[in-house]
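Review session, final week

We close the course with one last complete record, chosen because it touches almost every idea we covered. It is EamA domain-containing protein, a protein from Stigmatella aurantiaca with 172 residues. Go through it on your own first, then we will talk.
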Amino acid sequence: MGGGHPVRGRARRDEPEFLHGTRAHSLGLAVTLEFAGPLALAVSGSRRASDFLWVVLAAVGIVLITPWRGGTGAIDPLGVLLALFAGGCWGAYIVLGGRVSKVLPGGQSVATGMLFASLAILPFSFAEGLAQRLTPPLFAASLAVALLSSAVPFTLERMALRVLRATPSPSC
């Protein structure tokens, strides 16, 4: 890591797409590219010209924060693709989460989502030796992180998505 830049380079097998995007680029660029998914989703349902103007302004902002120089600060195409992929997943999460929250009552949608997420990651965790390193304090801390960073916020979000409906924003 030189010059205060984030680590750049190949994706590691143990990090999700978004995290590789932050390793390959500045956090600001990775988050901006990831936000393209929800932005595209919002614009796809819009018919007002002013909404498309905001998309153009967002694109200009992306161009302005992109490191166009060569060398160690150069753009990593894999990092860009993975950050955009994470944005697409975020957009899919918004659409699917809204639908699921209307079908399953209460916190069942979050519990179902957390169950499938756990089942998806469990084989990788065991392949990395989770069973040998798991202690009661580590399990308790992991459970606390899962509840406070995922289960509680996602439950509140699902409750909001169930009662909120899409309404056009007032013109500024």
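Two points worth writing down before the exam:
The chain is about 70% helix and 0% strand.
Residues 136-163 form the longest helix (28 residues).
Good luck, everyone.
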